[in-house]
Amino acid sequence: MTRHEFEVAMTCEGCSGAVSRILNKLGVETFEIDLPKKLVWIESDKDVQFLTEALKKSGKEVKYVGTK
Q1: Mean pLDDT throughout 37-62?
Q2: DSSP for 13-58?
Q3: By its UniProt entry, which InterPro entries does this protein fall under (predicted)?
Q4: Domain ranges within the chain, ordered by starting residue
Q5: How many angstroms separate the CA atoms of 58 and 14, rounded?
């Protein structure tokens, strides 16, 4: 299982809630959101491109940082 780090342009609890709902629907194994730092960590075997596109469905700008 790989831990991926993404920067997501979240500004409020509503933004992080939208990201959480998307990740829960995907059935992602484990994820963590740090709203003040605008970071999302996802533990998954899914493809990075797939995860990036899924996060973009929140309507926020998404940037893949790398693995941790």
Answers
A1: 96
A2: HHHHHHHHHHHHHHT-SEEEEETTTTEEEEEESS-HHHHHHHHHTT
A3: Copper_transport_ATOX1-like, HMA_dom, HMA_dom_sf
A4: 2-67
A5: 10
The fold for domain 2-67 equals: Alpha-Beta Plaits (3.30.70)
Q: What is the C-alpha separation between 64 and 68, in angstroms, rounded?
A: 12
Query: Could you give the CA distance from residue 37 to residue 46 in angstroms, rounded to a whole number?
Result: 24
Cα–Cα distance for residue pair 68/60, rounded to 1 Å: 22
| pLDDT at residue 27 is higher than 90 | no
Instruction: Determine what percent of the chain is predicted with pLDDT higher than 70.
Output: 100
pLDDT band at 68 (very low <50, low <70, confident <90, very high): confident
